[in-house]
Amino acid sequence: MPPLKKIMLLLFVGAMVVTVTTPALALVCLEDHSAKECAVSCAEAMWFMFPICF
Fold it and tell me: What is the pTM of this model?
């Protein structure tokens, strides 16, 4: 497998994992903190996934 395809595959798998885990982490966060605190921490941790935080 060429290196470029390997890198793209890793990026794709990473994006899938983040997409699946972000809503779950947000729900866990909302149980312990206010929505505003969760939004701030989510935005700081995953600024590129910001819309999913809401």
Answer: 0.42
